[in-house]
Amino acid sequence: MMNTFQQLAYIIATALFVFSLHWLNSPRSARRGVIAGALAMLIAVLATWIQPGIIHHGWIVLAIALGFVVGIPLSRVPLTAVPQRTALSHAFGGAAAGLVGTAKYFLWLGEGPENLTPFRMIAIIAEIILGFLTFTGSLMAAGKLQEVRWIPQRPVTYPFQNVVNIGLLVIAAGLGILLIFLPTEPWSGAVFLAIVGLSLLFGVLFIIPIGGADMPTVISILNSYAGLSAVAMGFVLDNKLLITAGALDGSSGLILSIIMCRAMNRSFANVLFGAFGKVKAVVASGEQKVYKQETVEGAAQILEQARLVVIIPGYGMAVAQAQHRIRELYDQLTKRGITVKFAIHPVAGRMPGHMNVLLAEANIPYSALMEMDDINPDMPQCDVALVVGANDVVNPAARYDKSTPIYGMPIIDADRARMVFAIKRSKNPGFAGIDNELYFKDNTFMLFGDAKAVVGELVKQLAGAGVAVH
Ligand code: NAP
Q1: 3-state class (DSSP) for residue 312
Q2: Residue pair 360/326 in contact by the 8 Å Cβ criterion
Q3: Is 320 in the pocket of ligand 1 (CB under 6 A)?
Q4: If DSSP codes are grouped into helix, strand and coil, which group holds residue 274?
Q5: What is the pTM of this model?
Q6: Distance between alpha carbon 312 and the CA centroid of its chain, in Å?
Q7: Alpha-carbon distance 164 to 108, whole Å?
């Protein structure tokens, strides 16, 4: 009876996970998606907890309490830190899978050789290799994105690096195959621990050659590894919900990585082995070019005369939390009869959908948000392109300069607008570490300053000027 109830609960939780992912596809239904996902997880935990045979309830309560203690502060990180926060979650997931696999192996080993069937051993080996490499890999990725001082941000490369990395993985897998056939020899426990050590080491070595700029994509790939280790854990524990939830996690991580790679025109191999960001020093140390600046008053006057204004937000808008000021600017311009559109690059910011979330928070109508491919044909008719803290995603060098790490990445054609205003605080480069030639073009004028402050000033100017009639 209890078992039927549990299986029913698992089916409901699985359905909720699927709907959650579906609803997360659109900002309109995203809130519902989050609630469905959390509810599914609650049902999963409760249904597992009530299964007969569980005696250590105190440990479960302690684990739930610890989850709250760690989870609540993690949920409060700013949106700009979500990629590294996500990496930490994957690290926990990977560690959990690895530890469960290790515990199960030694428990079964103690209980008798008949427990360690080849099928269980395959699942355990897959679980520990994927789980432990996800653990250290995700910790390294989070550290790189958080710019932790003792973790090098730039790719660390050395001769035969890929051979060493792949070699390590092959040795771990080889030892795993040995254990599948000989799981209970006197030396089997030591070999098992050697696989754990090699997987932990592989996670670190896998991440160090990858540049900070590729970390969001790598985190998404690690997401799919965490999902796959959960699938293996589901087979080890004979838990169908873990298998389906892990498969959903694994495939959604993979799909997200593919979306990011496409948006940057990169291949998986290039992200994983390309040492992106290595060229930074060479390119950034080029000749000194001259920026032209505009005053806020001047920019406000030109904006007032425009018919079509395209606002291109980027990571700087998120850092400055300028979305609410941008909403005010949108109101000021639209009430003058000016058409205002937002050009959303798929990898603007630090995760897909970053800009959509911020603009939705400021109640900018969804209809004003245009995807890159839809807005680019309109750019030559655009009177003013207002770049707000975006850099790499509007860098024309991506179209032709093969020496830049962003070569081939599709961009928003800001340079094709009649005039460009670019808001940023300094002359520093963007995430990819290269100069942006858009800023030096004849029709580009810089508005140096914090995005929230500058847009706020623009709003003040426009509000003070009253509504001009076209
Ligand atoms: P970006 O190239 O990182 O540039 C952001 C700009 O914002 C910087 O030039 C910075 O200049 C400016 N900025 C920072 N704080 C600011 C503030 N308070 N006020 C005004 N400006 C500020 O950003 P992006 O154009 O959005 O490009 C995203 C990058 O991330 C791309 O290279 C993309 O490939 C990479 N990436 C994104 C994803 C994703 O899923 N979104 C995934 C992988 C990689 P100052 O310091 O001078 O102010």
Answers
A1: strand
A2: no
A3: yes
A4: coil
A5: 0.81
A6: 20
A7: 33
Q: Which amino acid is at 348?
A: A
Query: How sure is the predictor about 162, in pLDDT bands with cuts at 50, 70 and 90?
Result: confident
| Contacts with 337 (C-beta within 8 Å, 6 or more apart), sequence order | 470
Q: Is the CB of 392 within 6 Å of ligand 1?
A: yes
CA–CA distance, 260 with 186 (Å, rounded to integer): 47
What is the identity of the amino acid at 210?
A: I
- Residue 339: strand, helix, or coil: strand
Residues 256 and 352: beta-carbon distance below 8 Å: yes
Atom of ligand 1 nearest to the CA of 213: 44
Cα-to-centroid distance, 27 and ligand 1 (Å):
22
Which residues are part of the catalytic machinery?
392
User: CA-to-CA distance for 122 and 169, rounded, in angstroms?
Assistant: 16
Q: Is 137 in the pocket of ligand 1 (CB under 6 A)?
A: no
What phi and psi, each to the nearest 5 degrees, are found at residue 34? -65, -45
Tokens found for residue 305: 């005369």
pLDDT attached to residue 211? 74
Strand 444-448 relative to strand 384-388, pairing: unpaired
Q: How far apart are the CA of 429 and the centre of ligand 1, in A?
A: 9
Instruction: Look at residue 275 and give its three-state secondary structure.
Output: coil
Residue 282: predicted pLDDT = 44
| Partners of 312 in beta bridges | 387
Torsion angle (degrees, nearest 10) of CA 251, 80, 350, 348:
120
For residue 450, the ligand 1 atom closest to its alpha carbon is 19
Could you tell me which of 205, 142, 141 has the C-alpha nearest to residue 168?
205
CB of 327 shorter than 6 A to ligand 1: no
Burial 355-382 (b: 16+ CB within 10 A, else e): bbbbbbeeebeeeebbebeebbebbeeb
Helices within 184-314 (DSSP H only): 188-207, 215-237, 240-263, 268-273, 280-284, 296-305
**Going by DSSP bridges, is the β-strand pair 419-424/339-344 parallel, antiparallel, or unpaired?**
unpaired
Helix (H) or strand (E) holding 64: helix 57-75
- Interval 415-453: pLDDT, tens: 999 999 999 999 999 888 889 999 999 999 999 999 999
